[in-house]
Amino acid sequence: MKTIFSGIKPTGTVTLGNYIGAMKHFVNLQDEHDAYYCIVDLHSITVDIDRVELMNNTRALAALYIASGLNPEKSTIFVQSEVKAHAQLGWMLTCLSGMGELERMTQYKDKSQGKDRIGAGLFVYPTLMAADILLYDAELVPVGDDQKQHIELTRDLAQRFNSRYYETFKMPEPVIAETGARIMSLTSPDKKMSKTDTNPKGYISMLDAPDVIRKKIKSAVTDSEGIVRFDRENKPGVSNLLEIYSLLAGISIKDLEAKYDGLNYGVFKADVAEVIVAELEPIQQRYHELIDSEELDLILDQGRDKAELVASRKLAKVEKAMGLQRKR
Ligand code: ATP
Ligand code: MG
Question: Which of this chain's residues are annotated to bind ATP (predicted)?
């Protein structure tokens, strides 16, 4: 049994990309491991976000975690800002990191591109993410492929801390699936599907109504070849839809290519949409039962208490190692 940590930001609604790249793995890993799944709201304030929207998103994400199959008996599900040690350790690790290594983060480069004002929080955000992981001595971190670089930084910081002070942190490893780790945008299949895309047609939200899903898939960008064939380089749109279909229906891409041999994109897309609808409908139903329930608050209270216990113990060790203590 290993310790697992991962999180999703409550910025916008969770997408099919988050579901396939992260959440589905969270569910699979909880049976065999000691898992902590966090709603990382302190990461959401690295960009401007309305306070009421943030509160609603936080609750919605918690409900979606559970509706997707996270079991509070097996996993610790909690809200990041409710466990103060995250921000505290985040600061300590910020002080341990260099401007140069943070500047090299490709996600920072992407997210700050074209902005007149770049928040300092966006710049140091990977150090907070490192704190999230290291607080729990997480050994495995299930993430999408875009987070690989941040886990490498986390390992560097852990190593630096351990050698500068004394052995305090465990080395985490990313768990990145071979397929589905980068679901692409439906409108620009050269970019990853992202919940903060300004064009909602680019992503499927986990709470999109069936007809919205059908419309979005129907208008998804493909190509003019007219053959359902996997070729990520030359046919990124069709390949992305094939990957989604394959992962959700449990049919290999080879078998799907054979199934749609001689059929046009219209038929193929209609089936992709139905596979997504069938996956999301039961999740949406459970979500609606949970969203205003007291059950949800009880789960989050329990999660916070458990996380708090583990995190505060680790923080005390870090403070001691760094000399953040009064001499008596
Ligand atoms: P944002 O654009 O605000 O960063 P996001 O969709 O990337 O939103 P995050 O909260 O940053 O969402 O990421 C949550 C998890 O989902 C991470 O593990 C991330 O790697 C994974 N993930 C995000 N987008 C995709 C995608 N398109 N395909 C697969 N996994 C993804
Ligand atoms: Mg992201």
Answer: 9-11, 17-18, 144-146, 183
Residue 189 domain-assigned? no
Confidence of residue 114 (pLDDT cuts 50, 70, 90): confident
> Smallest Cα–Cα separation from 302: which of 88, 134, 42, 74?
74
Same domain, 254 and 298: no
Q: Which ligand is nearest to the CA of 189?
A: 1
Contact yes or no for 257/230 (Cβ under 8 A): yes
Q: For the segment 268-303, what is each residue's pLDDT rounded down to a tens digit?
A: 999 999 999 999 999 999 999 999 999 999 999 999
Whether residues 277 and 299 share a domain: the answer is: no
154 neighbors 129 (Cβ within 8 angstroms): yes
Q: What is the pTM of this model?
A: 0.96
CATH of the domain at 239: 1.10.240.10
Quick one: which ligand is closest to 9's CA?
1
For 238-303, the DSSP string reads HHHHHHHHHHHHT--HHHHHHHTTT--HHHHHHHHHHHHHHHHHHHHHHHHHHTT-HHHHHHHHHH
State the residue range of the domain holding 281. Answer: 210-288
58: in domain: yes
The residue whose C-alpha atom lies closest to atom 26 belonging to ligand 1 is 17
Ligand 1 interacting residues, C-beta cut-off 6 A: 8-9, 11, 15, 17-18, 20-22, 143-144, 146-147, 181-183, 192-196
Catalytic residue numbers, as ranges:
111, 192, 195
